[in-house]
Amino acid sequence: MMDFGAAQIASVIWLGILTSISPCPLATNIAATTYIGKQIDSRYATILAALAYTLGRTLSYMVISILIVGGLISIPGSSNFLQAHMNQILGPVLLIAGLFILDIVPLRLPNVSFSMNMLQRLGDSGFIGAVLLGVLFALSFCPVSAALFFGSVIPLSLKFQSRFFLPLLYGVGTAAPVILFAMIIAYSSRLAGIFFNRLTVAERWLRRITGVLFVAVGFYFCFKYLFHIINF
After folding, report:
1. How far apart are CA 8 and CA 153, in angstroms?
2. What is the pLDDT of residues 19-60, one digit of tens each?
3. Distances from the Cα of 116 to the Cαs of 18, 30, 32, 56, 120, in angstroms?
4. How far is residue 25's CA from residue 3's CA, in Å, rounded to a whole number?
5. Which pTM does this prediction carry?
6. How far apart are CA 171 and CA 40, in angstroms?
7. Does pLDDT of 151 surpass 80?
8. Rounded to whole angstroms, what are the CA distances from 91 to 43, 84, 156, 163, 200?
9. Cα–Cα distance, 18 to 153 (Å, whole number)
10. pLDDT digits over 77-105, tens only?
11. What is the C-alpha to C-alpha distance for residues 68 and 194, in angstroms, rounded to an integer?
């Protein structure tokens, strides 16, 4: 279908940015960027390694989207059902995702850990290792990142039948703060600490605002498309 507009594009980029500055993804992003940077003695190479790490994360999101979105819309009955009822489905999905993001309803996920030996080998593998680190850390979803990706990006991709483009933009959104942080680390570790502290404070408020918006939009979709209480 692919008839989404600027609002959908801006939304998935913003969700990517919010994901990357959420506590758990931010910690893994910083750890990966710092770890990769220690293996490379050039500032530019550190930034390129961050780009490679971002590429790995983006590839993970795109592959997941291809499997879920591509699988569902390739089934004729499923595709027709989604086209006819996606607005009704989006309301409850966004409402529940908003509650997860606000941490009103806790989301428990299994912990995924990686051994130091494996990280050491990936770090020593240069840019290929950085890509693989991005793939691995993207697959270790935290509650907030899972709610943002599976509760918003995937439903939007299903609604607009976008296997690649919207997940790609989401991956690009996750890249912006990572690359910025890599540049700060490359030039000043002291500034990186200040930036991290301020970003942590800002993330709390940005996540709360986004969660409230999810709940509000979820209620709107429910009242409009599920219960037909409002018609605007």
Report:
1. 10
2. 888 777 777 777 776 666 665 566 677 778 778 888 888 999
3. 28, 16, 12, 19, 6
4. 31
5. 0.79
6. 24
7. yes
8. 46, 14, 12, 21, 30
9. 12
10. 777 787 778 888 888 988 888 888 888 87
11. 39
Burial zone of 225 (CB within 10 Å; 0-12 exposed, 13-18 middle, 19+ buried): middle
- 130 to each of 39, 47, 96, 126, 182, how far by Cα in Å? 11, 11, 34, 6, 13
pLDDT at 124: 66
- How many H-runs (helices) and E-runs (strands) does the chain carry? 11, 0
Residue with tokens 């709360």: 208
What are the structure tokens assigned to 188, written together?
A: 């000043």
Residue 194 CA to residue 70 CA, distance in Å, equals 42
- In total, the chain counts a number of residues equal to 232
How confident is the model at residue 228, as a pLDDT?
Answer: 84
3-class DSSP state for residue 102? Answer: coil
pLDDT of residue 215: 92
d(CA 144, CA 146): 5
Name the DSSP letter for residue 4: -
Question: What's the rounded Cα separation, in Å, for the pair 131 and 122?
Answer: 9
* pLDDT greater than 60 at residue 130: yes
